[in-house]
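Standup notes, protein team

Yesterday: finished cleaning the Forsythia ovata set.
Today: Cytochrome P450 structure.
Blockers: none.

Input for Cytochrome P450:
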Amino acid sequence: MASLTKPPCSISVSTICGVHHKRLKLWKSQNLLCTSNLLHTSRKLSTVCCANTSPWESAPVTYSPHNEGKLLKEATNIFETMSSGETAEASIMNAEELAGPSNHPSIQLQYLKWPIWVLGPTLLLATGMVPTLWLPISSIFLGPNIASLLSLVGLDCIFNLGASLFLLMADSCARPKNRAQGCSSKPPFSYQFWNMVANIIGYIIPLTMLLGSQKGFLQPQLPFISFAVLLGPYLLLLTVQILTEMLTWHWQSPVWLVTPVVYESYRLLQLMRGLKLGVELGAPSWMVHTIRGLVCCWVLVLGMQLMRVVWYTGFTARTYNQESSASVEVN
C-alpha cells in the first residue's frame, strides 16, 4: 500500500539513479582494467626494448642531435691521432732503414775526404809559394815592358787557379754528408761591409799615388808601364778576390771566412816582390814607401781576419756545448 501511495515521479527518479550508479561503477571498472592492461603491456614493451641483444649483433645506436657534434669531433680526433701515429711509425721505420745501410758509406766518404785536407794546402804551396820564392825573378823579368808584365800576371793567374781549387775542396769538406740537410752559411753584414771597405782602400791608395805622379804632385814621376809592373798584378788579384768573396756570399758557402785569408797572404808576397822589383827599376822613394805602407796595411787586415776566424771558432764551440748540454738535460 505504501508503494502504491508514492508518486510515479519519485519511483522513476530512484530507478534512474540506481541504473546510472550501476553504469558508473561498470565504466570505472572498465577504465581501471584498461589502464592496468596498458601499464602491463608498456612494461612488457619496455622490457623487450631493453632486453640484451645477441652476442653477434651490434648494440643499437641511439641518435641525439646534441651528441652529433661530439661524435664528429671525436671521429676527427681519432683519425688525426691514427694518421699521426702512422706517420710517426713510418718515419721511424724509414729512419731505421736509412740508418742501417748508410753507416758504412758515410764512413767511407769520411775516409775519402781526409786526403783533401793535405791536397788543398799542397795546391796553394805549389801554385803560389814555390814560384814566388824559388823561381828567379831575373828569368822572367826583362825590364819595365809588356813581356815582364804578362809574365808576372801569368804567375798570379797560376796562383788563382790553385786558390780556386783549394776553395772548392774546402767547400766540399765543409758541406754535410747528407745533401738533403743543406748547408747555408751567410756572413754578417758588418763583416761584408768592413771587407769591402778594406778592399776599396787597397784600391784607392795606389791609384791616388799614380794620379799624383801623373799630375806632377809627386816627383820624380813614375812611368805608367813601371807602375803597371810594380802594382798591376796586385790590382788584378784584388779584383779577383772581390769577385770571389761576392760569389761565396751569394752562394752562402762556408768558405767565406777563409777566402780573404788565402788571397791576402799571397798579396803580401806580391808586395814584397814589388819591393824587389822597385830596386831593380830604380823606382822613386815615394813609390817604395807606398808599397811598404800597403804591406803594413794588409798585415793589419790579415791579422783582423785571423781574429775573426778565432772568434767564429769560439762562437761555434760555445753553441755546440750549449746544444750538447741541452740534449743531455732533455735525455
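Follow-up from PR in the comments: DSSP finds nine helices and no strands in the chain.
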